[in-house]
Amino acid sequence: MRMDVSLALKNPGHEFPFALELPLRDQEFAGEAIEFKSDARLEGTYAMQGAGVVVRGELSVKLSRQCSKCLGPVDTAVECEFEDMFFKEPDPDEPNDLFIIENYTIDMSAYAESLVFLELPMTAQCSPDCKGLCPVCGANLNISQCSCGKADTPSDTRKPFAALEDLLTRDEEV
């Protein structure tokens, strides 16, 4: 969806309010499926300042992604404040720049997507005490004990230096 900013271009220095509900496409982020559960809501103001239009406000959206430990669903609310300058002329050094005014409008859908993905943490957990999956048989340890009996304790499976820690606990010289 494109937002008309012609009022700001005709009235430099004046702020104009906006409120948008934008549907965002489900997509993949860092190898993970992101499913949007609500439209992105953007509220704020825009004004002509110098060579461009400053857009500032708040974004909120609800989405679902996978727990990084057990692969179960995690519902996440993303909320952020934003302030960016959009220019009438593209920067020759930035051919893929999102911050361009075309035909007196700004592509707010692409802008909202970029804001959401900048705010997302790299991983999500369904709960702070998620036990994850058994590394041998793949059983969800939150639901039941694994059938193979070879699963490490959850604390050991998430410590990359557990073997070094074991060396330091022995009374041997290293």
Automatic annotation (TrEMBL):
Protein name per Swiss-Prot or TrEMBL: DUF177 domain-containing protein
Taxonomic lineage from the root: Bacteria, Bacillati, Bacillota, Clostridia, Eubacteriales
